[in-house]
Amino acid sequence: MNPTLADFGKDPWWIGTIKIVGVFVFLVVMTLFTIWYERRVVARMQVRPGPNRNGPFGLLQSLADGLKLAFKEDIMPLKADRVVFFLAPVISTVCAFTAFAIIPFGPIVPMFGVRTPLQVTDIPVAVLLALAASGMGIYGIVLSGWSSGSTYPLLGGLRSSAQMISYEVAMGLSFVAVFMTANTMSTSQIVGKQEAQWYVIPLIPSFIIYCISAVGETNRAPFDLPEAETELVGGFHTEYSSLKFALFFLAEYINMVTVSAIATTLFLGGWRAPWPLTLLGTWVNEGWWPLLWFTIKVLIALFVFVWLRGTLPRLRYDQFMRFGWKVLIPANLVWILVLAGVKTWQNENPNMSTGQLIIWAGATLAVIVLAVAVWPSKKELPKPTLEEQVASRPEGSFPLPPLDLQVPVSPRAKRITADREVV
Questions:
Q1: What is the pTM (predicted TM-score) of this model?
Q2: Which of 190, 159, 197 is nearest to 176 (CA)?
Q3: pLDDT by residue (tens digit) across 258-310?
Q4: Environment class of residue 217 by beta-carbon count within 10 Å: exposed (0-12), middle (13-18) or buried (19+)?
């Protein structure tokens, strides 16, 4: 049974405590598993074994690394703001956990004699709560770089904040299409509206934009520019060690799980079983089975994160920011405009079939793509030659190097070249 908003807020306090502890344990276990999962998959791509010593198949390697990291010496820089330096990783971690409170794991299930939704809570604007939590998480990164009292963490924090804010705009716009289709912002109701069809099929442009934005939002490769080792050492957490660094590490992987869970909830049917399994009967979407389908979908989304890291090189920062502001956001706005037009046309013509709607939407998108393709682009002027650059300088000006760095060949180099040709 799919829960509604009226089913929340009626649980005893101990049921709510069990749910909160269950979500906490789920996220911690998923973090430990994802670290091992990532190392094994990347090792497989690079034809090497990966972690295989601690536990069966190396499954306890992440736990061993976490315990070792927690017991390392905690170093505090002399010029750091001690209070803010301590609170920054706490802010990032708390916001990462908070965003998972509105994710539905399954339908209404019996739990110790009480029938309750398999979800911590739900509100009419639940998806906005997830966006707000991810937005607050930026403060932890910015404050960590600022409070370190060092140059590289400050640059990493500023770069990360600009990156996360810009890609959060595209992520938020990708949710608008889901809101327009489902007519609600409640996560449990959005999952309920996908009983007949997952939203990934009719809203494929929003899904693609969300996937790209999610990778940029979580600072993952190929968008891991705030932690570019060749430029910024370790980025915003350069000065962190021991448990504080572990909290940043935990927040990053929890954010990966969170954006994967949001993609599952909004586009991939949530906890509902995929099509081949639904032929087995209604029992696949009842009881505790949906928790298994939800976890499998999240793991598949996490595999995409790992796949990208092992495949694509890191982008240049200016290219990355230009792609977010000049490609993702305009494309999202155009897609929302097309979808709004289709919805308006459907309301005015209620007898129109789904096939006709798809034809109209496809024709509109084709016209937009054609207009973009034939739009006159700005012609680049030919670069001036070295003589033209020198002649364009005002008289008496200081001799500056050429703009295109075409330094004339020295007479000595010409003489050496001529001698070699004679020999």
A1: 0.83
A2: 190
A3: 999 999 999 999 999 988 888 888 888 888 999 999 999 999 999 999 999 88
A4: buried
- Chain centre distance of CA 419: 61
- Residue pair 204/171 in contact (Cβ under 8 Å)? The answer is no
Q: H helices of 349-404, where?
A: 354-374, 386-391
* Residue 330 CB neighbours (<10 A): 12
Whether 31 and 253 have beta carbons less than 8 Å apart is answered as: yes
b/e per residue, 154-170, with b = 16+ CB within 10 A?
Answer: bbbbbbbbbbbebbbeb
Residue 105 class from Cβ within 10 Å (0-12 exposed, 13-18 middle, 19+ buried)?
buried
Instruction: Select from 212, 182, 177, 183 the least CA-distant residue to 195.
Output: 182
**233-252, pLDDT tens digit by residue?**
677 888 888 888 888 888 88
**Ramachandran class of 183: left when φ > 0, alpha when ψ lies in -120 to 50, beta otherwise:** left
Name the residue among 217, 247, 30, 244 with its Cα closest to residue 130: 217
User: What token pair was written down for 215?
Assistant: 């990778």
- C-alpha separations of 41 from 37, 145, 264, 311, 370 in Å: 6, 31, 22, 11, 40
- State the pLDDT confidence band at 189, using cuts at 50, 70 and 90: very high
Q: Tokens 């976490």 sit at which residue?
A: 66
Give the whole-angstrom CA distance, residue 135 versus residue 130.
9
Contact between 364 and 343 (Cβ < 8 Å): no
From residue 126, how far is each of 93, 123, 181 by CA, in Å? 19, 5, 16
